[in-house]
Amino acid sequence: MTIADIDRCVALEQLLFPEDDPWQAVAFRSELAAGHNRYIAARDERGRMVGYAGIALLGDAEHPEAEVHTIGVDPICHRGGVGTLLLEALLAEAGKRGGPVFLEVRTDNQPAIAMYAKHGFHIIGLRKNYYHPSGADAYTMRRPELSAQGQAWRGAQADEVLS
């Protein structure tokens, strides 16, 4: 994802998260500028961005961890596998360093919760009134560190799908 994609990300945020303080351009600029973050874009056959995702690679070499910051997919592409491709690409990035991966998801977002569970995430906590201004609750989910073999398989799978 590049600076040129920010306007499209802001438009998608307003479509996807209207009651939960959608990110503005300044937030995306800040995320892209942070050296520990990785952001990617999914594009359709015409080159139009249909999704975006970001992850923070945290900790150090001895104690790495990652946190999924966001995944957003154009509503016209929902249930088409774009979110899965984005998540798998983020997990491949995290897998290069190892460690567990964390995220927050709205408790009422059953499709996302199911996708995360399919990729090894488990609910480890509840954050009451996490999203503002709606006051929606969020689950904290964690995927434990994969074995080296699991990391290589998932990374190769994500690379194959995205190329």
TrEMBL record:
Instruction: Tell me the organism's taxonomic lineage.
Output: Bacteria, Bacillati, Actinomycetota, Actinomycetes, Mycobacteriales
Q: Where is the N-acetyltransferase domain?
A: 1-146
* Protein name (Swiss-Prot/TrEMBL): Ribosomal protein S18-alanine N-acetyltransferase
This entry's Enzyme Commission designation comes to 2.3.1.266
Q: Which UniProt keywords apply?
A: Acyltransferase, Ribonucleoprotein, Ribosomal protein, Transferase
Q: Which GO terms describe its cellular component?
A: ribosome
Q: Which organism is it from?
A: Nocardia aurea
Q: Record's Gene3D superfamilies?
A: 3.40.630.30
Does rRNA processing count among this protein's keywords? no
Q: What PROSITE patterns does UniProt report for this protein, alphabetically? A: GNAT
Q: Which domain of life is it from?
A: Bacteria
Q: Does the keyword Ribosomal protein apply?
A: yes
One Gene Ontology term of the molecular function aspect: protein-N-terminal-alanine acetyltransferase activity
